[in-house]
Specification:
Keywords: Membrane, Transmembrane, Transmembrane helix. The chain is mainly alpha-helical. It contains twelve helices and six strands.
Length: about 375
């Protein structure tokens, strides 16, 4: 029996029958290697509820709410689905802040921020500037919804502020995703552990610090989004009070001059305020629109960066959301057809019939 050839000969034989186009992509797919970063973080990857499929669906719903607000059945279907995404994200953000793990970061905070920030910049402005939305009795519900999103943004501000990357003390020249630990205790077996990550969602890895949207930048973004949210809620509350007063007592503007003014009347002051409000609305729409586009672009670049996209579920959970939205659309259409045929019930109709009291004590 002839002796086996040396291993180097076998390697040469394999090398002659292999091509660079096959070997290099296979090696890159098996192990992801980069230069050792200066700072790393132990983190749970972005879950499927904030995956690319869910984000694209949310963007489409928000665009439909803004562009198709005159089409009632489409508006109702898209609005119901679009309000759920940021509301759930806000509750999730509060839970993440309450169950904070000091030595690890849940990357779902980026997904919750993306949903809450776009929602709070879009929905209140659309409601206040559109009579189609604001004359609907559901405006009070949207006001409460804005309060929930504001609480979620405050929780995200705290969570981003507490998130901190540490220096990598590894002597290796290259950082391998899923292998290099940089001296941190970060694994499924050794912890850290979170009540929010159990079962199949307990995978935890050491990744480089995000560079597109750092933790400090995200903290400033969250705090900045809270300011227009508070101002929008105050403005919405003022308009709600005015509408309720008008429905109960009617118009109260008169031509009688106010004391201590140069002949100014409430009606004239109301016209001046309306003109100023119109100019501010013209400026408000492009400013908030630019802010939404900026957050969308920067957020998506951050989601597709190597640290944040590592081990992210690509299209998870989009099927459930898409099916539920497709079912809500024909349901809204059927409801709209029913109202057109049978008439819409009046919101001022009393629940119980009103009768005159004929008690004996009133006759005396």
């Amino acid at each position: 029996m002839p002796a086996l050839p040396p291993f180097s000969h076998v390697y040469d034989l394999v090398a002659r029958n292999s091509t660079t186009e096959v070997a290099v992509p296979a090696l890159a797919a098996a192990v992801k290697v980069i230069e050792t970063p200066a700072r790393v973080v132990c983190s749970w990857p972005v879950s499927g509820q904030y995956g690319p499929g869910s984000r694209i669906l949310y963007y489409v719903l928000v665009a439909a709410c803004v562009l198709a607000r005159k089409t009632e059945w489409l508006r109702n279907a898209c609005l119901a689905a679009a309000l759920i995404f940021p509301a759930v994200a806000a509750v999730h953000a509060v839970a993440l802040a309450a169950l904070h793990v000091p030595t690890a970061v849940d990357m779902d905070i980026y997904g919750a921020f993306q949903f809450c920030s776009i929602g709070i910049l879009t929905a209140p402005i659309t409601v206040r500037l559109s009579t189609t939305y604001f004359n609907n009795p559901g405006r009070n519900t949207i006001f409460l919804w804005a309060g929930i999103i504001l609480v979620g943004l405050l929780a995200l501000t705290v969570e981003f502020f507490r998130s901190e990357a540490v220096a990598c003390d590894s002597d290796e020249s290259f950082f391998t995703y899923g292998v290099s630990l940089c001296g941190l205790t970060c694994s499924i077996e050794d912890g850290p552990y979170s009540p929010m990550r159990r079962g199949s969602a307990d995978e935890i890895y050491v990744i480089p610090e995000p560079t597109v949207m750092t933790f400090g930048t995200a903290t400033l973004f969250c705090a900045a989004c809270c300011i227009p949210a508070i101002l929008s809620m105050v403005s919405m509350w003022d308009k709600i009070l005015k509408v309720n007063w008008k429905e109960r007592f009617g118009e109260t503007y008169t031509d009688k001059p106010e004391e201590g003014t140069n002949g100014a009347t409430p009606e004239r002051m109301h016209r001046v305020n309306s003109i100023i409000r119109g100019f501010l609305s013209v400026v408000e729409i492009p400013v908030f629109g630019a802010a939404v586009v900026a957050i969308l672009v920067v957020g998506e670049l951050n989601f597709w960066s190597d640290p944040v996209s590592w081990q992210t579920e690509p299209m998870a959970n989009v099927g459930t959301n898409l099916i539920s939205h497709l079912w809500s659309t024909p349901a809204s259409l059927v409801t709209n057809i029913h109202y057109q045929v049978n008439g819409r019930p009046s919101s001022h109709q009393p629940l119980l019939p009103v009768a005159r009291c004929t008690c004996s004590w009133q006759r005396r």
